[in-house]
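Before a computer can learn anything about folding, someone has to put a protein's shape into writing. The three-dimensional part falls to structure tokens, numbers that each stand for a local backbone shape. The protein below has been through that process, and both of its lines are reproduced in full.
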Amino acid sequence: MTTELLIAGKNAGKIWECSNSVKSVVWKTERTGAPGSLQFTIVKSGDLSFAEGDTVRFSVDGRLQFYGWVFTKSKNRWGEIDVTCYDRLRYLKANAAYNFKNQKAGDIIRQIAEDFRLEVSFVADTGYAIPSFYRSDVGCLDIIGEAVQQTLLNTGDIYVFFDDGDGLALKRPQDMISDAVIGERSLLLDYTYKTDIDSQTYNSVKLVWPNEQTGTADGVEIHDPATVARWGLLRLYQQLDGDVNAARAESQARAMLGTYNRRLRTLSVSALGVPGLRAGMMVRMLVPGLGDINLDQYVLLESVTHTWENSVHTMDFDTMAI
């Protein structure tokens, strides 16, 4: 395994290859709501001089893992510098106001990217135009995340918004399947298997929206009698805005019920590292006798943390519902 850590200093006009001076590197990604980050500890030597805003590129065996910018530095008396870098999604934490009409998630991403002067890579066509979408004084990353969530609730299709190193990207997990297999005889070090109906499980969905003619609220509720009898009533209540009618609301409620009406099974895994594996990707897991199931399927990764230290690469990840 060969690692390469390049730091490009804008003021110095130089690029330093720092892999031999780095004690550890940690790369983190989340499927939603957060930029990718790279943290490393470097020992200052030679003419190394970099500042906030300088670019960092980290590769393993010639394959890009992370591209981003220095945001924080802290140095101790021994010359060790702790550095935190973020990718393009960090710039989308800024608040803004947008009013979109009949725009797809990809259209929203392109518009916001243009406003913030950010490069765009591959953006999938979701096929679903959000009828009305107005947000004010909200973080742009949250705006895009909500657009992607509305696409999921109305189509059943999951999309992942992330920085692929070349620019902002929107892809389906099934288009980002790893060829690795993680199991008891392949890379797996440890795991925790959890089942629950306590978080993100709902067997009733109630949607309401204002009726301007009557001055009251209209609503629709869809529930599953079988799981209500088994678990009790677990209701998801949500207010809708924009152009809403009963048929559209009922369709959305049924889609939401199909997404949330299940016992949640999740895995937290420690394993030997697979370069390039990031949140939003799918990887095959093979763990017989997991508990109530024999796991042999592709899982969607909710968060992934890679660590490179002392020439050893390990990773920890959490899965979405399996």
